[in-house]
């Protein structure tokens, strides 16, 4: 250990109370920063996973221009072969084809005259493949009453009664429950009428009341037959192995589908409003972190400045015996860095304890929190390398920068004047 390092290590223990307060200030900044980053990463990852895993997918493939102007006529042909090719990619976990269109749903209460419908509502119709959708989104977990769609005669005959799933709020609007019947009125892609009788197979709650107020679900085969879209779909929803692989997977899928007149978009594109809101929240949190670091920095600056003022005679002696100004600067900066290193160790231990608690138990919202139309009842923190390296770098940079001003002041101490000071 060099002489400068020995002096720095000795000096930080000369005023133990002040040193402990300084280390506590830096440790507090470290812990608050670490917990905030872990909470931000965990809660936002949870939101994104909930949003994409339960409905949209992390990546979507459409006909070019479909996202900007959805149309029943903009379809993906030979979707099965495209889907299988996507499924073979390394970062892809699952995929699901979907059809999107609209219809009028009508129901009548028991005892009403034939042909008289007392309740009606416009609804978005989503055609799903029950097996592939379940594999991709575990769709059945969203069914609060009834059962998942199954194959039926309606998949191959326009005269048969089909199965339909209704959003929770839509079912309330139509005043129907599982087992009740309703009529669907719409128009097929070829211009013909698309009308069929359906039995309510189940009630769906996605966690987004606005979606559940307007959405219903049919089997993909039923939708293709009813809306004259045989062998075609509007969307391929793709699930990746992890959120960190989304961009890489999107690039790979784009390479597969680009030559087919299809476009690939990640959730950051097709859910841009949700993404923009999340980024705005992240910006606010970063500002809060900057304030926390700034407050800690002012505490360190005040402590080191007081320490320098109290040691003017000592610095005068050092200058008198020939100590170079740069050596004094180096010693004071090293003192601050040593306190920063101790605070990083202490902060790392405390942060780990806090993150483990938040990652296991999280925060329960009562009442539930509505974010972007989705209801969240619990959020968990995550433990990532950023929870440690960002606060560590911030502490070391802060301790180095704020110690420079007192160090330069000490280095320019007038030896003769300081020695005359009692």
In short:
With 422 residues, the protein is α+β, with helices and mostly antiparallel strands.
Strand-helix topology:
Elements: H1 3-11, H2 16-56, E1 59-63, E2 76-77, H3 79-87, E3 92-107, E4 119-128, H4 130-137, E5 143-146, E6 162-167, H5 168-174, E7 181-187, E8 193-204, H6 209-212, E9 215-219, H7 220-226, E10 232-233, E11 235-240, H8 246-257, E12 262-266, H9 267-270, H10 272-310, H11 312-320, H12 325-360, E13 363-371, E14 374-379, H13 386-411, H14 415-420
Parallel strand pairs: 4-9, 6-8
Antiparallel strand pairs: 1-11, 1-12, 2-10, 3-4, 3-7, 3-11, 5-8, 6-9, 7-8, 13-14
Helix pairs in contact: 1-12, 2-10, 2-12, 2-13, 10-13, 12-13
Task: Describe it.
- The chain has 422 residues and is of the alpha+beta class.
- It has 2 domains: 195 residues, no CATH class; 196 residues, no CATH class.
- The protein has 14 helices and 14 strands.
- The strands form 3 sheets. It has a 6-stranded mixed beta barrel, surrounded by 4 helices. Strands 2-10 form a two-stranded antiparallel ribbon. A two-stranded antiparallel sheet has the order 13-14.
- The two termini are 33 Å apart.
- 39% of the residues are buried.
